[in-house]
């Protein structure tokens, strides 16, 4: 059994209207070739929100102005265990661009189920769809 420590990751579910921003992880990265919610590792001395702001500036060139904690999820990949700290990003300044050359796309909430995400992400997709697509009968 591994005793390696859990990698804490700040993850942004970036909303614009009914769409969510995804970025393609490059083939050389862990879980490469899959679409992700932009984000990255929380560094020592940083709060998760600070990490989120820094990572989204570094990766997709936006300045987060409004965010809220959404869910946390620990997932053990064979090679490492991650703690995904997921935030809804409901306000930002700037037009997103892939700062690291990565393709970006906006996907409607209903379409998230058709996207190939890292293995850890299934519960995130379900929770987003539950949160935003719950039918409200008259
Ligand atoms: N950003 C992000 N990471 C995810 C998602 N799902 C998932 O399993 N991960 C995993 C993949 C990685 O092992 C880890 C995030 O690491 P990362 O590669 O984004 O870290 P980073 O931006 O700090 O990059 P680096 O400096 O280490 O290259 O979390 C997701 O939706 N978004
Ligand atoms: Mg990253």
From TrEMBL:
Alphabetically sorted, this entry's keywords are:
DNA damage, DNA repair, DNA replication, Hydrolase, Magnesium, Metal-binding, Mutator protein
Q: Name the cofactor(s) required for activity, per the record.
A: Mg(2+)
The source's domain of life comes to Bacteria
Instruction: Kindly list any coiled-coil regions of this protein.
Output: none
The reaction(s) catalysed by this protein are: 8-oxo-dGTP + H2O = 8-oxo-dGMP + diphosphate + H(+); 8-oxo-GTP + H2O = 8-oxo-GMP + diphosphate + H(+)
Q: Which InterPro entries match?
A: Mutator_MutT (IPR003561), MutT-like (IPR047127), MutY_C (IPR029119), Nudix_hydrolase (IPR020476), NUDIX_hydrolase-like_dom_sf (IPR015797), NUDIX_hydrolase_dom (IPR000086)
**Nudix hydrolase domain segment(s):** 5-132
What EC number(s) does its UniProt record assign?
3.6.1.55
Family, per entry: Belongs to the Nudix hydrolase family.
Protein's name according to its UniProt entry: 8-oxo-dGTP diphosphatase
């Amino acid at each position: 059994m591994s005793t390696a420590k859990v990698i804490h990751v700040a993850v942004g579910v970036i909303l614009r209207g009914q769409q969510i921003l995804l970025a393609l992880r490059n083939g050389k990265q862990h879980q490469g070739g899959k679409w992700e919610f932009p984000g990255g590792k929380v560094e020592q001395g940083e709060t998760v929100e600070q990490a989120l702001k820094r990572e989204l500036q570094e990766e997709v060139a936006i300045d987060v102005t409004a965010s809220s904690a959404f869910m946390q999820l620990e997932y053990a990949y064979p090679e490492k265990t991650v703690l995904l700290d997921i935030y809804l990003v409901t306000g930002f300044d700037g037009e997103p661009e892939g700062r690291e050359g990565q393709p970006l796309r906006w996907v409607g909430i209903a379409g998230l189920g058709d996207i190939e995400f890292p293995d850890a992400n299934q519960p995130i997709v379900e929770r987003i769809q539950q949160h935003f697509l719950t039918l409200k009968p008259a």
